[in-house]
Amino acid sequence: MSPTPPPRPRLTTVLGRGSYAEFLRIGEILRKETVGGALLVAAAVIALIWANSPVSESYFALRDFKIGYEPWHLELSLGTWAADGLLAIFFFLVGLELKREFIAGDLRQLSKSIVPVAAAVGGVIIPAVIYAVVNLASPETLRGWAIPTATDIAFAVAVLAIIGSHLPSALRIFLLTLAVVDDLIAITIIAIFYSSDIQALPLLWALIPLALYTFLAQKYRRFFGVNAQAAWIILLPLGLATWVLVHASGIHATVAGVLLGFAIPVLRSQASGGPDAGPGLAEIFEHRSRPISAGIAVPIFAFFSAGVAVGGWEGLGSALTDPVAVGIILALVLGKPIGILGTTWLLTKATRATLDSSLKWIDIFGVALLAGIGFTVSLLVAELSFGHGNIHDDHAKVGILAASVLAALLATAVLRTRNRHYRKAEEEEKIDSDHDGIPDVYQQGGSER
Prior knowledge:
Blueprint: E1 13-14, H1 20-51, H2 56-64, E2 66-67, E3 76-77, H3 78-103, H4 110-134, H5 139-142, H6 153-163, H7 169-193, H8 200-218, H9 220-224, H10 228-249, H11 254-263, H12 281-306, H13 312-321, H14 323-350, E4 354-355, H15 361-370, H16 376-386, H17 391-416, H18 419-428
Parallel strand pairs: 1-4
Antiparallel strand pairs: 2-3
Helix pairs in contact: 1-6, 1-7, 1-12, 3-7, 3-11, 3-12, 4-7, 4-14, 8-10, 10-11, 12-16, 13-17, 14-15, 14-17, 15-17, 16-17
């Protein structure tokens, strides 16, 4: 008699509070991203003003200025260095964060990961479909179908800081997970659909430094002991070699960043609960890389990518009526909330689950609107879709900027109506009646672990 298969996990509540350790970690990440978001917005505004000023030629000359070593296919414009090089740091962090969440974070539990992951997938598919429908008659512009797929977490948390939102930790974690997962989906799309003239030899050569990097990272304590500085010094050149070879292969170089992030161990001992279990290189590398990514890499990329010569009100009107911009705006402002909210609702119905008692559906709607802020990765995909100097690329940038601002305003209008409730929830999360350093709400059901 065959054994009875185990029952499928059934969700009872979704989007409840996670562990206190996760609350502290996510809070620290979002504080850094808030600063990065402010720098990103400032860089984009400076670029827009400069690109539409009487000295706009100097901006485009700077963006297109080439530097690098041509025999290694690295004589690139400054704009390309920002997109291919600096954004690799950003995607390295995406790989680190995703691996950490699913191995050591709360999302290792299927009951907690299934909703944000499914919502992120819905928030990718629906915007892509909406853009494709709008541009179905034009094969040239249809190539930009992936532009509205990603959420810019730095821009989003900067908006939260500006409006003074006291968004509960569960919703902040939901937003961060959405952004990280759809960034991973976006980089997968880039690798599959936006790589061209693939060169097999450099790609095969890239496997050598990548394999050595992975081996040393996984066994770093055997070779470096507790000296993480030595690990950094050895692994960084191997990572750079991998990036150079992936770039030469024709696959977008930011893909190397994700692979290198995935290679870093999250736990010192992969044996769960082993005597040596604990934070590994991932935490160390994340701590060192995030300020570089949020404070330097992403703002510089935004500076070189957001600058578009609008051409006055007539040019702005022309850009906003282009099917490219129309598709992007509809996809981000309508498609994102429809995909995220709709998928979350359908999943709760399919699993007979309910929202956590501290939340309402309008909260999910507000976060889904906020996820419509697609900026960094959207600008990258626009450039890959149409190329610098193409009129569709310029119109795509206008659409991305307009959609991001509109999504931010709509999210602000929704979330501000719930701020009193959020403030009350925030106060509850600070109560520690037994003075043990862990708020009471995180000790219910052992969630302090």
